[in-house]
Amino acid sequence: MKTIRVMNSVFVFGLFFAFFDQLSKIFVQNYTPLPIAFNTGVAFSIPIPQGIQIAVTIILLLCIIVFGKKFILSMDSLKKQKYVILALALIFGGGLGNLMDRINLGHVVDFIDVGVWPVFNLADSFVTIGAIVLGVLLVTTSSPKTS
Q: Is 124 an annotated catalytic residue?
């Protein structure tokens, strides 16, 4: 798979996930009776100054782009490459969705409440699912191909 096509795929799918996250937040805030939480902290509402949150998020998103390409191309099959693209797009899109909230609103909008876990949103779910897929691929991939 060509390098530019790989990274375009991560970027385009990531934008789709970020858009879907933003759309879900608008829908929930305007058209449902679901309770909404405004998270000014990071994971589990841990308080960290907003400027640091935004800077760290941007750095992590750039790392996905820089290191993601090499990781994708190291996969020994096209099928595994597609899973890595999906995983990185989920992480990128989720991070971007929450970053958009932080920049535009000063907080992240959370609305999924399962009772035994802190309130979260689709972006958080995307990041978690992407990390799990990536972890499974790392554990199940024997050795990366060399180039």
A: yes
